[in-house]
Structures are given as C-alpha cells and as structure tokens.
C-alpha cells in the first residue's frame, strides 16, 4: 500500500503503533485524543507524507520522528502539543519541505540550526508560545516560500538577514515583539516574489518605506498580465499526485479569514498597530496589484497621498486612527473603483467627501472622528456651519401648538394650482371669454370630426355651401 487517507472521519481514542507502512499517511481532522507514540519514528521510516493535524493530540513531539529520513511533509497543526521544538528538526530540514506546527502550545525558541542544504518551502509556527529571536541560519533555507511565526512572543529586530531568500512569498510576523525600522539596507534588499506581508501588532517604528519591504513584481505588476490562476502548494514528489496545500489566516475587511488555497495573485499588506510614520508617497503608488492595505493605528501624519489612487485593484483600505490631515484626494475616488471597505476614521481630515463612484456607497462609520469632514452621509453637510440636528422626535413635533410647514414639499403643488387657476378662473367668471372659448373649441372639433356633427348627405351639402361662399 502506498497511500492511506483516513482524514475527515470520526476516528478516536489513542493512536497505536506500529502504523501502516505507507508513503502517504493522512489522519487529519479526526478525534484522536492521546499523546503521539514515542516510537512513531520506526513506523514511518518510509513515509514521505504524514499529517496528524486537527485532532486532540497532546504532550511533546517525540524525537523519533526525525528518524523518518524520507519525510517531505510533516503537519501536526491544530492540536494541543506542548514542550519545546525537537532540535533534530534542524537535521530533518535537509529533506523536509513542509513543517506545519501551527496552533499548538509549544514553548522555547526556534531551533537555531538549519542545514546548508535546507529544503524547507513552508515553515508555519503560528499561534504558539515561542520566544527568542529568528535564528540566523534560517537564511540557508533559500527555497522558503511561506514563513509564518505570527502570534508568538518573538523579541527581535526586523529580520533583514532573510532578504536573500528570493523565493519568499508570505511573511507573517504578526502579534510578536519585533522592534525598530522595517527598511533593509544594502544590495538585494527586497523580496522579489513577496505577495502577503503581515507585520501588524508589533513595536516597529520609523519612516515606512514599502518599496524596500516589498518591491515584488506580484504587488507592482498589472494582474491582467497573469492569465493563469495558480495556488501555492508543495509537491511531495512521490511519483503520483501528492500535494500539500498551504493555508494562512489574513485579516481582510475587518475579519479574520483563513485562506485554504492561496492564489499567487492575491496580495496583502498589513502594518497596523505599530508606530510607523511618514510613508513615501511614491512607494505607495507602485502597489498597483494590491488587494488589501491596512496602515491603521500608526503615527502617520501629513495629507493622504494622491498616489494611493493608482492602486486600482484595491478592495480594502484602512488608514484609521492616525493623524492624517488635509482633504481626501479626488484621485482616490476616481481610481479605487473596486474598493469594498474604506476606513478613514479618527484622523484630522477636513473638507468635502468625494461623493462619486465607490465613495458614494460608504456610510458615516468610514469617516467618523474627523470633525472637519462634511458630506451627504455625515451629519455635517458641506456649506453648513453647525451639524444638522437629528430627526425630530414625537415630543419635539408636538411641543408647540403652532403647525410646522415645510414649504419645500408644497412648492410643486402651489405651482400646479396657480397655473390651473390662470386658465380656469377667467372661463368661470367672464361670460364673453367663455362663449368665445367654447365656440373656438367647437370649430376645431368640427374641422377634425365633422361626421360627428352631421349625417353624410347633409355634411356634403354644408361643405359645398361653404366652398361656394369662399369663392364669392
């Protein structure tokens, strides 16, 4: 037997050994509730694919797993595993392509040795209790495409030593204790393939240079040039279709969304909840293919750069809770035609809101906390000094005995009544006008419908008599 896939069933109890000797073993999404057997390594010596994710395994990760020298994919995510990361994983990185330990209770530091021949393509340690720093030897993993260590307690500067990993597509450092500036100096200071960047909820500071962070073709190019849709995945290379599908969680439109399949065209930048300031306007304008941009809860000042209007693919823009000033550029309303979510709240913006295209669909919540803004969706209308009062209550409308008349609603009715009276009243009051009016109307109807007034023969006699009178 080569493949044994028992995923998404209701298997439960303890995981017994020895396991079936197969190359592809998938026991994910079941109800196993036990420790991982200490001797598991001897059962999976020939295995290339092992997934025990989304169960209830607890205890430590057994060192014997490292005996599986042929292992290409190891997924132990979504369990309750504890303890430290086995140091032997550093040796396993020579053959391992995917290591996913996401959503466990692992403690300690990331193992500090990675082989010079590291073949890791995905390293996902998100939602654990890891501390320390990002080890320098991780830069040996030049094939790395997905690096996700979000929601841990890593205390380190921005990892510029990873900039030579040219294949990196996903960088998630969210909710840690990273500090300092983002920009990296020197040659090869960007990741040319980077498409998802999540650095939210850290202590990053200084001037933001997005171009130095993500100068990738994926974010800058016109997506229309990419006609073929592709997903990030890892091919275990077992001689038959054995793919591992990468997944990741992003914050999109204010909600946490788990991307089960990651399109290579999907681009997102989330730098919220830091202390960044003064982005370079030209840098923001080059991100033409970005779908999500979140710069909220930072220290940005100055006006909103009009160059943001060049982000024609943008669907979600959040610049809230900064100190942005000036007016909202019309270029945003003209250029962001696919925008579904906009949040400019709690800044220092002034002037009228562009009420065109997508901007005409956003409600007051998108602009609240900007006392100087005015527009149709706000209580402060442009041209008025004071904000409009709320709609009157029942008590307000009955607080006085004098009736309130809104002349705007009566203007059309008064106009009609005036015009109607100008025509009808003279006919009713003046007999001479009335006789002439009816005589004139009668002659018009006689010329149009003479047969209604006379029979056929008498009609011809009258007509002949009139013609004779006209000749004389």
TrEMBL record:
Q: Which Pfam families match?
A: LRR_1, LRR_4
**Intracellular or extracellular location(s):** Membrane
What are the UniProt keywords, alphabetically? Glycoprotein, Leucine-rich repeat, Membrane, Receptor, Repeat, Signal, Transmembrane, Transmembrane helix
Q: Which GO terms describe its cellular component?
A: membrane
Xref: InterPro entries: Leu-rich_rpt, Leu-rich_rpt_4, LRR_dom_sf, RLP23-like
- Please report the record's description of how this protein sits within the membrane: Single-pass type I membrane protein
> In which domain of life is the source organism classified?
Eukaryota
The protein's name is: Verticillium wilt resistance-like protein
Q: Which organism is it from?
A: Quercus lobata (Valley oak)
- The record's gene field reads LOC115951946
């Amino acid at each position: 037997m080569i493949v044994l896939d028992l995923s998404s069933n209701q298997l439960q109890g303890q995981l017994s050994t020895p396991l079936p000797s197969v190359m592809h073993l998938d026991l994910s999404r079941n109800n196993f509730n036990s420790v991982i057997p200490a001797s598991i390594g001897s059962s999976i010596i020939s295995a290339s694919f092992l997934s025990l994710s989304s169960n209830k395994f607890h205890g430590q990760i057994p060192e014997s797993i490292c005996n599986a020298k042929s292992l290409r994919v190891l997924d132990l995510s979504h369990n309750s595993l504890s303890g430290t990361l086995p140091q032997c994983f550093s040796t396993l990185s020579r053959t391992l392509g995917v290591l996913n330990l996401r959503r466990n209770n692992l403690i300690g530091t990331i193992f500090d040795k990675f082989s010079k021949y590291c073949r890791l393509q995905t390293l996902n340690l998100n939602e654990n209790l890891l501390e320390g720093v990002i080890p320098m030897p991780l830069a040996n993993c030049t094939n790395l495409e997905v690096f996700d260590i979000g929601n841990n307690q890593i205390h380190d500067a921005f990892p510029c030593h990873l900039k030579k990993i040219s294949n990196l597509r996903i960088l998630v450092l969210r909710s840690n204790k990273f500090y300092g500036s983002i920009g990296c100096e020197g040659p090869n200071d960007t990741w040319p393939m980077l498409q998802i960047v999540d650095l939210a909820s850290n202590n990053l500071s200084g001037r933001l240079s997005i171009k130095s962070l993500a100068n990738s073709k994926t974010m800058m190019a016109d997506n229309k040039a990419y006609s073929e849709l592709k997903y990030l995945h890892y091919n275990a290379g077992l001689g038959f279709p054995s793919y591992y599908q990468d997944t990741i969680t992003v914050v999109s439109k204010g909600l946490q969304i788990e991307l089960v399949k990651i399109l290579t065209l999907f681009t997102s930048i989330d730098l919220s909840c830091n202390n960044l300031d003064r982005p370079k306007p030209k840098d923001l304008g080059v991100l033409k293919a970005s779908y999500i941009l979140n710069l909220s809860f930072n220290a940005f000042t100055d006006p909103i750069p009009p160059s943001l209007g060049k982000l024609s693919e943008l669907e979600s823009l959040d610049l809230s809770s900064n100190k942005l000033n000036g007016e909202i550029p019309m270029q945003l309303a003209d250029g962001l035609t696919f925008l579904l979510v906009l949040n400019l709240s709690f800044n220092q913006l002034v002037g009228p809101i562009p009420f065109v295209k997508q901007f005409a669909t956003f409600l007051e919540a998108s602009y609240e906390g900007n006392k100087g803004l005015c527009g149709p969706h706000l209580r402060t209308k442009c041209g008025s000094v004071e904000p409009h009062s709320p709609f009157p209550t029942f008590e307000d409308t009955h607080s006085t005995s004098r009736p309130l008349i809104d002349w705007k609603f009566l203007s059309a009715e008064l106009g009609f009544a005036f015009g109607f009276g100008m025509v009808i009243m003279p006919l009713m009051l003046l007999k001479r006008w009335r006789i002439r009016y009816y005589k004139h109307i009668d002659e018009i109807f006689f010329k149009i419908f003479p047969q209604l007034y006379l029979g056929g023969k008498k009609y011809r006699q009258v007509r002949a008599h009139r013609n004779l009178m006209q000749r004389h």
